[in-house]
């Protein structure tokens, strides 16, 4: 008797509420998108190619009956159906702020960055002020980057060791630590995460046992905040420190 073919699961067609963000599902050749919003009444997924950040190649309005679980909106898209998209964002509609909604104000014209994006891309026309002005900020808003492969780091049996005594902490600014020539770091790695890696032997020689990094997550490049205390996205490393 021939084996009966199994149909696709509900998660494979409508997506899963977890994990949040955009996740590559390798065995399905698809992306899972999940976005949390307590008060949203409508969510549209926007997909872009890098060369056209003001013209989405796909706009997918999520159906609250099938693409929403509790407070999380979700969908799953095969890579073949995404028209070569490399970046993404959302349009989110909902009630006006105030009253029972406090500061949860919505503007359906605004392109919104996924707060769980693993990498942030700023288009050439990026303008921070456009998010605060009337009308659309299409082409001027930061976008999330889509990865086809994302391997979680395998710690194996190497558990994190905690120092209970003799702890020597070195507080460090990633760019400031190696950006100058006297750091001895090659120019192409100076002021970056790799530059810090190059200096690990130096830190060990000093007797340092732990490094405390000043903000390394993505912050607004137009804020001109050297210290990084204008966080834009907590789940993406600052691109200015990456090589």
Describe the structure.
The strands form four sheets. Strands 3, 4, 7, 8, 9 and 10 form a six-stranded antiparallel β-sheet that branches. This protein has helices at 10-14, 174-178, 193-198, 200-206; strands at 21-25, 30-36, 42-48, 58-61, 68-69, 72-78, 87-93, 111-112, 120-121, 143-145, 169-172, 210-213, 217-219, 231-237. With 243 residues, the protein is mainly β. It starts with 9 loop residues before the first helix and ends in a 6-residue tail after the last strand.
Summarize the entry for a quick read:
With 243 residues, this protein is mostly beta strands. The protein has two domains: 10-145, Immunoglobulins (Immunoglobulin-like, Sandwich), CATH 2.60.40; 169-241, no CATH class. It has four helices and 14 strands.
Please give the structural blueprint.
Layout lengths: L9 H5 L6 E5 L4 E7 L5 E7 L9 E4 L6 E2 L2 E7 L8 E7 L17 E2 L7 E2 L21 E3 L23 E4 L1 H5 L14 H6 L1 H7 L3 E4 L3 E3 L11 E7 L6
Parallel strand pairs: 11-12
Antiparallel strand pairs: 1-2, 2-6, 3-4, 3-7, 5-6, 7-8, 7-10, 9-10, 13-14
Unreliable stretches (pLDDT < 50, length at least 5) are 1-5
Q: Please name the CATH architecture of the largest domain.
A: Sandwich
Tally of DSSP β-strands: 14
Count the DSSP helices. 4
Query: Strand-residue fraction?
Result: 25-35%
Domain count: the total is: 2
Q: CATH top level of the largest domain? A: Mainly Beta
Mean pLDDT rating? 92
> N-to-C terminal Cα separation, in Å?
57 Å
Order of helices and strands: HEEEEEEEEEEEHHHEEE
Structural class: mainly beta
The CATH topology of the largest domain is Immunoglobulin-like
Give the oligomer, counting copies of the same chain as homo and different chains as hetero. Answer: single chain
């Amino acid at each position: 008797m021939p084996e009966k073919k199994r149909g696709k699961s509900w998660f494979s067609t409508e997506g899963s509420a977890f994990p949040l963000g955009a996740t590559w599902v390798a065995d399905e050749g698809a992306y899972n998108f999940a976005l949390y919003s307590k008060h949203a009444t409508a969510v549209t997924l926007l997909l872009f190619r890098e060369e056209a950040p003001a013209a989405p190649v796909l706009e997918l309005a999520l159906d609250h009956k099938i693409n929403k679980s509790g407070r999380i909106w979700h969908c799953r898209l095969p890579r073949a159906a995404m028209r070569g998209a490399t970046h993404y964002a959302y349009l989110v509609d909902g009630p006006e702020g105030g009253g029972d909604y406090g500061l949860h104000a919505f503007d359906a014209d605004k392109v919104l960055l996924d707060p769980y994006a693993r990498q942030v891309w700023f288009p050439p026309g990026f303008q921070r002020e456009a998010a605060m002005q009337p009308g659309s900020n299409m082409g001027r808003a930061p976008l999330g980057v889509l990865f086809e492969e994302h391997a979680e780091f395998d710690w194996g049996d190497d558990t994190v060791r905690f120092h209970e005594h003799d702890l020597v902490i070195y507080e460090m600014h990633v760019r400031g630590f190696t950006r100058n020539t006297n750091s001895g770091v090659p120019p192409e790695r100076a002021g970056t995460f790799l530059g810090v890696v190059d200096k690990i032997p130096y830190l060990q020689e000093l007797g340092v046992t732990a490094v405390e990094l000043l903000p390394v997550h993505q912050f607004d490049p137009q804020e001109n905040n050297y210290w990084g205390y204008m966080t834009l996205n907590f789940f993406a490393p600052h691109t200015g420190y990456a090589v």
